[in-house]
Amino acid sequence: MRSLPIRFGISLPNRGVLFGLTSTDDLIEAAVVAEQSGVFESVWFGDSLIHKPRLESIVMLTTVAAHTQKVRLGTICMASFPVRHPVLLAIQWASLDQVSKGRSILGVCIGGGHEAELRAFGVRKNERVERLEEGIRILRELWGDGEVNYKGKFYTLEGYNVLPKPVQKPLPIWIAVSPERGKVGDSIVDKAMRRVGALADGYITMGVTSEEFHRRWQVIEASAKEAEKDLTDFETSIHGMVNINNDKHIAYEESQFYFNHYYGPGYPTEDLIKVWLAHGPPEECASLIQSWIDMGITTPVLRFTSRDQLKQIRLFVEKVFPLLKLSS
Q1: Which of 46, 123, 156, 274 shows the smallest number of beta carbons within 10 Å?
Q2: b/e per residue, 244-269, with b = 16+ CB within 10 A?
Q3: Closest Cα to residue 107, out of 73, 134, 68, 137?
Q4: How far apart are the first and last CA of the chain?
Q5: pLDDT 10s digits, 192-249
Q6: Residue 16 to residues 152, 216, 242: CA-CA distances in angstroms?
Q7: Phi and psi (nearest 5°) for 164?
């Protein structure tokens, strides 16, 4: 039975530097202010290489590690995971864990399947799931003790003992995946959730209804049970969008500007916005965030869809956070 504290994270827009939404100095300051607030327990960055370019996620996390002391540091969805060589990633991520003194969380996903990016790295679109699974298994072996001898579909390692090792044993690997049931069907959703239950130490979703989250969680639990995995410390996270403004129309318009630049026109849909974007006055923001907590989210990671990250952090800490009920 899980009984975990509610721990808030902040997801900072490293892509936003490229279109004038923020600056590198502002991102670092936001991470420091978030930590000092005592409300945010983790700092996260998004990840993509060619498809949706941004300041590289491991570089940003390492930079923030040097400016903070306590917050955990993670990728909210390492979309480039299927194209990154697991040996290089193992060394880079273990180095981050060393620099941060054991504060890292590797959040991985299969990415959006952008053909040009995949082609640049010699990866096929239909290989992404298998590369995700194989990559996770290789990382766990490389970060363990002793010599690694691994033969898989994509990688063969014979007699390797790669250094450095992470501080954390084991280092947590979370899977981010949020398939739309209406588009892909029940079997695809269930396969994705079984993968989470079997391979991951935590789960990251996008906006979902309470009913959908519970359906997914049942499959995760069943898969973990089959794998004889203990879920006592298994965290469930939502990458939730937030814009706090007493004028709800202004909050919505600023969020749309953000979405259009970050994700492209037409995304997210209005249906997704209803369960994913907490916007408007503090009371309305708190209501949607509370619904995430009530449905079973233990680690809400908030992305402020605003040009002014620092103002939003302070508004959340002062106006929204006190309205939330974090325990039963």
Answers
A1: 156
A2: bbeeeeebbebbbebbebbeeeeebe
A3: 73
A4: 15
A5: 999 999 999 999 999 999 999 999 999 999 999 999 999 999 999 999 999 999 999 9
A6: 37, 31, 16
A7: -80, 165
Predicted confidence at residue 19, as pLDDT, reads 86
Q: Where are the domains of the chain?
A: 8-323
* Lookup: tokens for 157: 């390692």
Q: How far apart are CA 113 and CA 20, in angstroms?
A: 26
Residue in the structure block whose two tokens are 């923030």 = 64
- The answer to whether 305 and 258 are in contact (CB under 8 A) is yes
Average pLDDT for 30-36: 98
Kindly state the tokens that stand for 237: 């996270």
The 3-class SS string of 66-128 reads: HHCCCCEEEEEEECCHHHCCHHHHHHHHHHHHHHCCCCEEEEECCCCCCHHHHHHCCCCHHHH
| Superfamily for the 8-323 domain | Luciferase-like domain (3.20.20.30)
